Amino acid sequence: MSENYDNKIVEDLWSKSDCSASDKNFYCYPAIRSRSCKLIFGESDASSKDWCEYWTVEKYLKNIIPLKKCLSICCGFGEVERTLARLGVAEEIVGIDIAPGAIEQARERATIEGLHNISYRLADINSQNLPVEEFEIIWANGALHHIRDLDKVVGMLASALKPGGILVSNEYIGPDYQQLSVRQQEIVNAVKHLLPSELRNKVVGGEKLAAVSSGSKLKAWLSRLVNAYKLRDDIVYEKLWEMPSLEYFKTTDPSECVKSSMIVSTLKNYYVDVDVRYFNGSILFYALDRAFYDNFNAEISSHRRLLESLFALEEYFVDAGELQNDNAHIICRKG
User: Fold this and answer.
1) Which pLDDT score is estimated for 112?
2) Sign of the CA dihedral 86, 89, 94, 98?
3) Per-residue pLDDT at 210
């Protein structure tokens, strides 16, 4: 898979896409983040939007903060840095991102909140040179899976930390460009069939296909048509989920999951202590779509029991070795 791409695509996309604006996704949805919180921290209270930063501070940083200087890479619209400032993590916080629109908004929002110890800088971390032993802590929230030159950048981040410094990373660590194995695709589709109609879109992938070629769209449409209307007694169940193609990622965001599968192993090459806390997602990250996030109701017992069953099913396949963990919260300490 090519590592060369036009940064303009990435800059434009992330100048407009604010990940903190909605909780309707695998990482932020309340019913799912409670489970993630328990898997990562052994705590069930994820009621606050800043649950991950809060528990990271409580479990790892409480006795050493405030630190002097914190760097946050791929900071986007600045939600994480504002949270870190409110939690008193560091006297000075520096956020960097490749997207000019995001940096502009991050600066404005920090000013509105009166958080004057945060500064933001426009920078591509792939080509950035960081000062050696400048920071006590570096925050990489959903950042490393966007890094094209992963080995170079991880090494640079390690050099930029002072001895004993900490790197915090919360990441998608699944297959590069989310190109799943046939078995994983099969299980994701099977799980979508377990969802009641109000909790699933008929076919996930339609809006994603808009970004690829007309030939690819026609092929996918014909495939769904044949699959849905096959006149045989041994019909294979209709395909309810389509894995986004490599072409889709290269067209919409070539930085997305560019070297995600190598994150943990690369970190272990540069840090003496790497604490990896997995929070799965190898099925539900893909199988749950907007219909689920719009219509799931924890007050409905059938919805609640179904989600608990799906959590257990995902854990079964991971424990059995059929699927890998696709998400992890990682704390690295420099020697």
Assistant:
1) 97
2) negative
3) 46
